[in-house]
Amino acid sequence: xxxxxxxxxxxxxxxxxxxxxxxxxxxxxxxxxxxxxxxxxxxxxxxxxxxxxxxxxxxxxxxxxxxxxxxxxxxxxxxxxxxxxxxxxxxxxxxxxxxxxxxxxxxxxxxxxxxxxxxxxxxxxxxxxxxxxxxxxxxxxxxxxxxxxxxxxxxxxxxxxxxxxxxxxxxxxxxxxxxxxxxxxxxxxxxxxxxxxxxxxxxxxxxxxxxxxxxxxxxxxxxxxxxxxxxxxxxxxxxxxxxxxxxxxxxxxxxxxxxxxxxxxxxxxxxxxxxxxxxxxxxxxxxxxxxxxxxxxxxxxxxxxxxxxxxxxxxxxxxxxxxxxxxxxxxxxxxxx
Amino acid sequence: xxxxxxxxxxxxxxxxxxxxxxxxxxxxxxxxxxxxxxxxxxxxxxxxxxxxxxxxxxxxxxxxxxxxxxxxxxxxxxxxxxxxxxxxxxxxxxxxxxxxxxxxxxxxxxxxxxxxxxxxxxxxxxxxxxxxxxxxxxxxxxxxxxxxxxxxxxxxxxxxxxxxxxxxxxxxxxxxxxxxxxxxxxxxxxxxxxxxxxxxxxxxxxxxxxxxxxxxxxxxxxxxx
Lengths: 337, 225
Known about the structure:
heterodimer, A: mainly alpha, Topoisomerase I, Chain A, domain 4, 3 domains, B: rod-shaped, V-type_ATPase_csu/dsu (chain A), transport (chain A)
């Protein structure tokens, strides 16, 4: 495959730059938080251009909000696929939904369900086709890592009857698959980004397992291979208290994270505070693309902004529907731009 | 008070007196049972209130944590994370006897790879808020079962108290007064008969004396002639 140059992204970058201004601003979030009802938030979102234009704002928010958000993500992915010279850049990230669907299918299968009931949209493989592939064990059309992982899940579930193993194996495979796709793309930025996502996920697993007091054996099963924060790095710290991790992090490529995590831990913010630190670190990395005139970086950055935006909007909508106080929502909103 | 429809005979009186004795004894026993049931009921209600407060607090906590987890994850992700529970819970039901009321006893045992193994999902792609929700829910389960046990016990005891109260009242306000009234009636009737007999006897005696006097007077008259 001919190497894709930054110039090939000229159109995509220009289009994305034009749309970056349409991302929801912190002031708009404040307006949403001040809205009286979730229905008002839905109206604001529709005005903002959310959804496929078919949202009925007269309906209660609880019925339309999830569709609105999944439509928005689908629209984002569709647009990126349309404007990017190489669709693999987006399919790499869309693959996450395939893995989620595979988990749904496998768990549904073992529960004896005909259909799992829900599927994640925006995958690279149609969920019904994926289901047929898994049921018939005809996995040749899937990436090799994916196919192997599905078979491994089937084998592991047969051996242990433990549904968690399905998540462990497919999560691990998903990040490996993303790393492999990133390598195939040959873009150092994407490789670095995927490695960072992989490491952050590994840290998240490690911190959660430690906070819940899980054993070393559990960690051995749950940890991802990781990139710079490797499985070995975490396993070496598995018997030590959690603050040792923050100390050890200071000597790694993710040294910047050490202070934030350690502070969140000391302030007793729990996993939600630490997850916020991890997410914000990723956003800081993404934000670096701001000064790149042309290339894949701004496009990917926009995808991540959009995902973070949808997450924030979901938080506000769910909060409004269920009457959660603004302070609790604000605490969990992720800043990205 | 209604009097029982009986013949006022001595035999019936004896029977009724025996019945009255039994009714009084039954009344006392039932009253004791009612008081004891009441005591137990109040204990259960007090515990029930405490347990309900705990459960409601825990469930509110679970609810708010689930909302936050739901707010940070898409519906598909949450569905995937929770669709297949890792731990199985089996519930054993038996009964315990409180003052002849069979109240339920619920015991649950968990089957899984470990006591703490309550999270059925992977940690890489799920929100940490979910852990708190699941943990809180798992803490709430024993309290919820205890609450179910207490509420059912309270309900069964309340039914039994109501039944016993009705019996006590029936004895106290209907059967015992009726028996007393009937006994009084029979005693009065018997006394009346007794008095009637006595009067009759006295009358007979008077008549016999009069007769004797007449006879004596006749005899004396004959002698004088």
